[in-house]
## 1
Amino acid sequence: MATTVYGEVSYSDEFGNDNKAKNNKDLFLRLNNGTNEVRIVTSPFQYLVHKYKKEGDPGFGQKVGCSFIHGSCKLCDLPDNKAKQRWFYGVIDRKTGAYKILDVSFAVFSQIRKLARNPKWGDPTKYDIDIVVDENGGATGYYTVQPIEKSPLSASEQVIKDNADLEDLKRRCTPPTLEIQQRRLDKINGVPSNGSTANGTSTNGVTAHGSPKPTLTIKGDLAPKTPVVDMSDDSELAEEFPEYNSQT
């Protein structure tokens, strides 16, 4: 079980395994096969997320924030659906020169943290890094983080760093309440806000597909202090960037 920390974190922290931001998909940096050179301009911001697939979804599923910190989470007790620990960074994308949000799993974060703890390299905001994606590299070789020679930011790049929207990153990694999480699940399942599906069928107590909704509320002293976290890689989650401004 991992010790869960939400929000901005330090590279000295221990983990379970060992421009103003606009709320749109274009703000996120997608890591493509091959090289992805960036300059990190913020601290890492940590959060917990589940992957949720509605019945019949042939794709990767969608991201739903873990609400366990608020006392319960509808997804934590579902079979094989442990929360994933991930991190947001504000970065400068070297391909475009624009500010982006980089959303990474432990596989990438742990390598950046290793560089940060190495006296030769230190603070990763002082040099570029190349996140190399090898789609044929398997679980251990899918991501490789390589440091690039230290260099100061240009005047225009320093402006980007100085104006990085830290409040936006904090908001994005804030755990949703159980109510917000339920609205997010209802939206994924096609449940209108009035509690009925598109064809008018009532969904009180059932999913959009007619299955009983699991009762997962954990009360009182029976609730563990932190959810069980799966630290394995989850690169497929990069396919989905939900709008965290309104998870409804």
## 2
Amino acid sequence: MMDNLKELYQQVILDHNRNPKNFGKLDPHTHFSEGFNALCGDRVDVYLDVSDNKIQNVTFEGSGCAISKASASLMTTFLKDKTVEEARELFKEFQDMITADKNDAVDIDKMGKLAVLSGVREFPTRVKCASLAWHTFINALDDKNEEDD
């Protein structure tokens, strides 16, 4: 099972890096934040259109490693059409998944394609790459624009 997840991890990361979903500036947008990972130079801007307590649209721009870009791409596909509360819960579940012990089981049914990013647990220095867009998303929701928190 874990070998299949590792293989899927590589395929999904490469696919979303080459062909990121929802890449580009969202205009108009209601929320925005910039994120920066000083350790590796990854940068991401997250744009949100939130109305009626629902994420109507979410896009990103930026540059960085394949994990950072793939995570941002996957994030946008999962957050679109979620309520703000559902999105915050997904953020927490994602953070818990990528920071858990590498031997902990991943609930693939619950996490869907996001489960492939659990592979970063094997490389602790890459956890920040996978979480950059997510932290930037939360900062955008909270109308914060903090770099590398």
## 3
Amino acid sequence: MAETATKLPIKTEKKAPAAPTPAVWAPLEALHGEINRLFETFGGGSWRLPFGRRAFELDLSWPGGMSWGVAPAVDVSEKDKQYDITAELPGLTEKDIEVKTSNGVLTIKGEKKEEKEEREKNYYLSERRYGSFVRSFRLPEGVDADKIEATFAKGVLTVVLPKSAEAQKSEKKITVKAA
């Protein structure tokens, strides 16, 4: 039986952004900084992705703690008429995920709560696991924020950021001529 994707509501906030929370835990932060400096000097700081982050830049800080230890895997791709963001979120349901836009920033939040209890004749087992994550992306210019859609199926969240008609028209292919 095929599983259908569930559409998630996109919340839009108009209030000013809150001050960033200081990083509680940042593994390999020094190595991260050194690698960033290496690529900045190598490429003159010009290795940028569509969402304003430098290539190879990872956000390893987790304010608020996260039992998964690292950020969930996220892929960002650009197509002719849209940008796609896909995030692998195994073990979560659409009720555990929140997607919203505010002041030109797309934020994906998730929280996992798992409790397990077993009672047998010789033992009693009780386990609890809690964790949350937040990933934010600056919306690229030309995205129609009112038409952003999010779907969740088989543990994968897909957020579609459609380009506005003006952004699609502004692209122009330039022919390369032999010298």
